Amino acid sequence: MKSEIIAVGSEMLTPWRQDTNSLFLTEKLNEAGVTVTFKTIVGDRQRDLVGAIRNALGRTDIVILMGGLGPTEDDLTREAVAEALALTMRRDASIVAALHARAATWRIAMPSNNHKQADVLQGATVLPNPNGSAPGQWLDSVFGGYRKLLILLPGPPNECKPLFEAECMPRLRSILPARHIARRTLRAAMIPESQADSLLAPIYTTFTDVETTILAHTGDIQLILLCAKPTAEAAQQRVDELAERMEEALDDYLYSSSGETLEQIVLDLLGLRNATLAVAESCTGGLVAQRITSVSGSSRSFLGGAVVYSNDLKTSMAGVAPDLIARHGAVSAEVAQALASGIRQRTGATLGLGITGIAGPTGASEGKPVGLVHFALADAHNVEHVERTFRGDRDRIRQWAAQQALDMVRRKLM
Amino acid sequence: MKSEIIAVGSEMLTPWRQDTNSLFLTEKLNEAGVTVTFKTIVGDRQRDLVGAIRNALGRTDIVILMGGLGPTEDDLTREAVAEALALTMRRDASIVAALHARAATWRIAMPSNNHKQADVLQGATVLPNPNGSAPGQWLDSVFGGYRKLLILLPGPPNECKPLFEAECMPRLRSILPARHIARRTLRAAMIPESQADSLLAPIYTTFTDVETTILAHTGDIQLILLCAKPTAEAAQQRVDELAERMEEALDDYLYSSSGETLEQIVLDLLGLRNATLAVAESCTGGLVAQRITSVSGSSRSFLGGAVVYSNDLKTSMAGVAPDLIARHGAVSAEVAQALASGIRQRTGATLGLGITGIAGPTGASEGKPVGLVHFALADAHNVEHVERTFRGDRDRIRQWAAQQALDMVRRKLM
User: Fold this and answer.
1) Dist. CA B92–CA B77, nearest whole Å
2) Which chain A residue lies closest to B25 (C-alpha atoms)?
3) Mean pLDDT over residues B104-131, rounded?
4) Is a pLDDT exceeding 80 seen at residue B242?
5) What is the DSSP letter of B286?
6) Which of A60, A311, B92, B155 has its CA 20 to 30 A from that of B414?
């Protein structure tokens, strides 16, 4: 079954705004066994919209329209569908009543143009929208002699997504052949994408019934495995078989078998070991702390740390001896190690992490290029050190460095 | 002049990847006086692609195709354009030579399927691509009796964007009426979007020749003003007139008249005052430090700070008295003030910033809801305090809090 998603709204034809709902809708449609073969973005002009709807009906079985259901003159989706399929509309009394009730709870009189949100296409089923004023519509119709399904959804993500999930998915499942999806997400850190692919391609290409997607992002690889079978068990078994083979191949690059983020895994491992962590960050400037504290409950294992941007702070907050900095430079193995030990001592954490490097674009010197970063991790017994040189702009170097730092903690705790 | 952008690639019809080039292309096309009236995303199937190209040629003047120019069997854009317009292709000897030379610099033999990248559509001009192997093509053609322009671009953003800028913009400017664009971006912090719009709408609606776009994002408002006139001076004058009126209306909510970020402005003001800043963050967990240090050169004015997630660290790193925490709780005006004064003293910074709050979803208590955040800013003479309660999830509350914290520093320095 093929579908087209049409996002309606002139703002999505500017340089500043993008349709994002369609990613969610695609995931859900795929689950139900529907392929997305086209996506179209069209402005708030009825002629353009009618043409786009007719094109979509001519080339797919299911057409999903998002947006253009509001009360303003620019909201033309209902009218355009009516024109494209030569349908009439009726004003639904119960929707009008609901619009009045909604306006009353906001203690305002309902503007008269709001009434158009109660217009229902001939033959359509109204899909209630608990999060907004415009309901969706589900229309089983005929175009060019073929049966077609049209779904009209509100544009705001907080209305579109729950409505689609609650109202459309059960209806789609009831009309499409039963099918069961199994999905797994594996994640690996600090393995180059090309290396991951040459390790994994010989494996996943033999699993022709499992769809494998590889997403790579600054030191992080996500492998999304998806399989559809007549039973849930059969689908799960194939996904698990492939996952197991991939896990083996990825060895210790693998950090998650079910999609958790690296910061979540680090916190899980710290919790498991009853250990705590503190960080002293120079070039990453708080990025590592920020990633860890983005996880709810992180305070159980993460004590905090210092952002030691200036040399004085490296000394006053993390106890790095000034002459160490003078001798080796702020970006050096020695200073990274002193940061790690120092922050560990000052905070009483089980593990202390130190990061110092050159994020650029300025700050390079003889033998110390932009992208050079020293990492150190201290426990009660010793201090490990890693040196890496990353490529890219300031933002990218900082992202890579934060990923490497978290991965170092993970490897220590494994 | 109307255009359609067609992004080619099955990966953009999955739940995981999105076209982003079109935002850049839209900005450039608008500058040249071309409107984008449709965007279409189509997979790597020749039939679908031919249909999409014909649709686009039927409804717009300029059709821009991105992607599908590579060497694989899935790369079908050239073939689809040839079929849609019934054109032949010729294999260009100089492109073949360039492909061989490129392969030689990588010390590999050129795979034979790479040759298809040298296929040039009948009547097309080759657009050199210094960043990749597939050149672009510029095709002045006729469809349905009308003159149409087709532009074929490579898909990777680092190839597509510079090629469009260098090769297509001058050509577009030479065939389209001369037009001069002026643009200004104003930015304001911590003003509700509805309040900004009710302040500004009466002003910008009277400037019908300037296009105003309002983008809102967790405590940050961007106003993008755009005007096209026959001369650059006339366009600039109108944009500046509107900007001046808006600046007045926004008063001290305005922080930038030319698009700088809030962290950049804070650093500029610190530099101007010869002042330094240090931060002690609890609920924002390094987010403020991270935003500031994302700016190159921030080390001149930003010393660093402490991420004091645990109560012990509030004491050991920022000198907050334990009995103050015991008496008022970690999330209190008193602790925020002690954090600000403490970090200021310990680092010797001109200004010390303290942030403590409940990012949620857990951690609320009697009278202290999720979203409550206390901010304090200390200088040599006194400590200011602000209390705010933000709505939303953990991520949103942290984003709002970081924005409020930076805005507090900005207002102090103004």
Assistant:
1) 17
2) A15
3) 89
4) yes
5) T
6) A311
**Residue A307 and residue B293: Cβ atoms within 8 Å?**
yes
Query: What is the C-alpha to C-alpha distance for residues A65 and B186, in angstroms, rounded to an integer?
Result: 34
Q: Which two tokens stand for residue B383?
A: 């400590």
H/E stretch holding A360 reads none
**What are the backbone dihedrals phi and psi of residue B65, each rounded to the nearest 5 degrees, phi first?**
-110, 130
Q: Which residues contact B309 (CB under 8 A, 6 or more apart)?
A: A289, A293, A298, A299, A302, A303, A304, B282, B285
Q: CA A91 to CA B257: how far, in whole Å?
A: 48
Write down all domains in chain A, each with its CATH number in brackets. Answer: 2-175 (3.40.980.10), 180-256 (3.30.70.2860), 262-413 (3.90.950.20)
Give chain A positions within 8 Å (CB) of B59.
48, 51
Minimum-distance CB partner of A41 among B39, B290, B306 = B39
Q: What are B146-203's pLDDT values in tens digits?
A: 999 999 999 999 999 999 999 999 999 999 988 888 999 999 999 988 889 889 999 9
Examine the pLDDT at A57 and tell me if it is beyond 90. yes
Size of interface A-B (CB pairs under 8 A): 210
Chain A partners of B41 at a C-beta cutoff of 8 Å? 38-40
Q: What is the ipTM of this complex?
A: 0.89
Residue B305: its chain A contacts at CB < 8 A? 286, 306-307, 313
Identify which of B138, B142, B168 has the alpha carbon closest to the alpha carbon of residue B152: B138
pLDDT value of residue A230? 87
Residue type, A255: Y
Q: Which residue of B has its CA nearest to A27?
A: B15
Q: What is the distance in angstroms between the Cα of B286 and the nearest Cα belonging to chain A? A: 4
* Chain A residue closest in CA terms to B24: A15
End-to-end CA distance of chain B: 46
Cβ-based contacts of B40 with chain A (< 8 Å): 38-41
How far apart (Å, rounded) are the C-alpha atoms in residues A237 and A252? 23
Residue written as token pair 């391609």: A201
Helix (H, G, I), strand (E, B) or coil at A106: coil
Residue of A nearest to B287 (CA): A290
Length of chain B, in residues: 414
